[in-house]
Amino acid sequence: MAREFTDQAKAAGTPSSPSGPDQPEQSKPEPAGAAAQELVAGDIDPAIATTDEDDEGRLPEASDDGNEIIAEGPLAIGHAAIENAVKLAPTSPGVYRMLNAASDVLYVGKAKNVRKRLSSYARASAPLPARILRMIAATVSVEIVSTKTETEALLLEANLIKQLRPRFNVQLRDDKSFPYILITGDHWAPQILKHRGAQTRPGQYFGPFASAGAVNRTITALQRAFLIRSCTDAFFESRTRPCLLYQIKRCAGPCTREIDFPGYTELVREAKDFLSGRSQAVKQLLAAEMEKASGELEFETAALYRDRLAALSSIQSQQGINPRTVEEADLFAIHQEGGYSCVEVFFFRTGQNWGNRAYFPKAEKSFTPEEVLASFLAQFYDDKPPPKLILLSHAIEEAELMASALSIKAGFKVEVTTPQRGEKKELITHALTNAREALGRKLADTATQGRLLSGLVSTLGLPVPPRRIEVYDNSHIQGTNAVGAMIVAGPDGFVKNQYRKFNIKSEGLTPGDDYAMMREVLQRRFKRLLAAAAEGETKPSRTEDDGVPQWPDLVIIDGGRGQLNAAKEIFDELGLAQVSLLAVAKGPDRDAGRETLFMPGREAIKLEPRDPVLYFIQRLRDEAHRFVIGSHRKLRKKDLREAGLQEIPGIGPSRKRALLHHFGTLKEIERASIADLGKVPGVSAESARKIFEFFHTQPG
């Protein structure tokens, strides 16, 4: 249904690409956004840019209601624009969008009676908060989409807010899907694995889990308890002997028929029962089998059941609180402090706690906890399936409407409630404590980051604390698979959705020429930004996307004076005098803490090994190095898959067949030690060493 509403919005003229959540009052030039999209399409590798454990979002920039004085003229213009819209507005349910002079969406709202709601904004004498008055003053037009019911309006409103990110709405900044556990159903020996994204593969899905770490820990424990395989189908079919997981009692070995089909099917059934909420029945069954084996003096079998019971107990102990009266629910608790909001979300499925995650939605200080929570909830379930019960720390005004909308979306009855007593109230209290502590940690981290950025100002002589820092590094092996990378940091830490990689394309490049590779990367990056700015007839300034400027205040490159001079030549050619430049040279013997810093027109800077600013710069450089090495390895593996093992010196078709027959897959060959490689028929000790070094040589 949400997708249908999105199509309606597009037909009504709604922009299809979202604007940044921290959008300034002045409109953002469209070409800069186009450039950002081009960068994403051409140079980003999302699989490397984000990590599974990066669950907590960044704090949004503090927005201030302020005591902003609103001129009578702009406010009158806004009232006039809304009055014109009122004349044509329907008296039925719908969604309205307030737009500024640049056609940027300022606010998305819903109403049971659109005309009546807009009339409340049009009355000049109505007492309204400063936030609303600023919105009215910036409004020049209003767009309306009618819906059949108020429920549809609620779903459409949430969808449009997530798409457009209007600056006067509460914004949920979340672009990560939740991980699930999948027990596959397309093989006679089902596999257990972590799954994200569309649930298209046959099998049973269990979740959501709050983080990838929670899924990984649970899968490991489930393997110990139920001995279900986690290997791929290709690996499974190629086995001629059990793998290591069988030896350490984390798999029953169905690949080599160490267990028969009925036996393995029974293990899978027990695992599904446990994940479906019948955990006590499964544990009682295992306990009975353990007692039976012990009574029959089959102590090895009894010990196996004992270990399986211990694995199941470890799952539930790791989950912290496990409610007795809550079978399936999501729990939301909000805490506000210092102008920021934190929403802590707990997931309960099958009577078990499957983890929690903290969110920091963007909302102005004037929003109450109830208002933030209501908007957060609608956006949260825009692309996620709701459970049967939703527990809230604060009672929201439209709880019944929210429940009705989610029931339609889910296809079963969903209850939205605020518990007042009993175990559910205790769970809310526990979640509120987590929300308060999470916001406290995030505020402390942000303050520390601010002090480090201020330290950069005094140490490097920068004009202002940098709001965007870009760090560049290159990687290659003897000039092959050359790749450059850029990482981005801001006031809230690393901004991983802004990371970029650059496949080096210059044909005349001398292999291993680090200077030329750096020149190519910087030219491609900044020529693109300059071209976008020129098309928009704007100067390259602080155009923002996702709260981070598109243009950097400081550029850091890995290298010494030579790399600095090469980068400065590019900056001089492009006229980038407003961007500060810093090169970080490694110390003698590559010792951390003895780095030398170089800036144009200045003497080399040496900081004390324990200087916090030096440690901060090291973290930035090391993150860039990690990202570029990951990009390089992925590119090298891709080339290897395409070219085959013949790329390794001295490995021809015969040895390739012998290696694949022995190990089964290329990944297993890569993981093998020199000794294991030497056991393959036809592979000498020297060949084994070459194969090992090919996969494990550190790129430069």
Largest sheet: number of strands, sense, barrel closure: 8 strands, mixed
Low-confidence stretches are 1-56, 537-545
In percent, how much strand structure appears in the residues? 15-25%
Mean pLDDT: 77
Approximate helicity band: 40-55%
User: What's the alpha carbon Rg, rounded to whole Å?
Assistant: 29 Å
Number of strands: 21
Gap between N and C termini, in Å?
51 Å
Class based on secondary structure composition and strand pairing: alpha+beta
What is the count of helical runs?
Answer: 23
What form results from the Cα inertia axes?
A: flat
What does this structure look like?
Residues 1-56 and 537-545 have low confidence and may be disordered. The chain is flat and about 85 Å long. The chain has 23 helices and 21 strands. The strands form 5 sheets. Strands 12, 13, 14, 15, 18, 19, 20 and 21 form an 8-stranded mixed β-sheet that branches. A 5-stranded mixed β-sheet has the order 9-8-7-10-11. Strand 18 (554-558), helix 18 and strand 19 (580-585) form a beta-alpha-beta unit. By secondary structure, the chain is of the alpha+beta class. Helix 2 (30-43) runs antiparallel to helix 17 (514-535) and helix 12 runs antiparallel to helix 13.
